[in-house]
Design a protein that fits this description.
alpha+beta, Alpha-Beta Plaits
Length: 67
């Protein structure tokens, strides 16, 4: 499955790495692509292993707002 989150507050490579690492720690997340320019996070994941809510919470736990 693929999903794109709109994320506010990401502005630098540290932000990009924080979000990427938080998502990759979740079992079931296979690929993460962060676009600082677009304010998006594209995730490829196994919906049998991880929920959208868990991924959203992982991003928000890093201090960013998911829209």
């Amino acid at each position: 499955m693929n999903l794109t989150f709109q994320v506010e507050g990401m502005s630098c490579n540290h932000c990009k790495m924080a979000v990427t690492n938080a998502l990759k720690e979740l079992d079931g997340v296979e690929k993460v692509e962060v676009s600082l320019e677009k304010g998006t996070v594209e995730v490829e994941y196994d919906d049998k292993k991880v929920t959208i809510e868990k991924m959203k919470n992982a991003i928000e736990d890093q201090g960013y707002d998911v829209k």
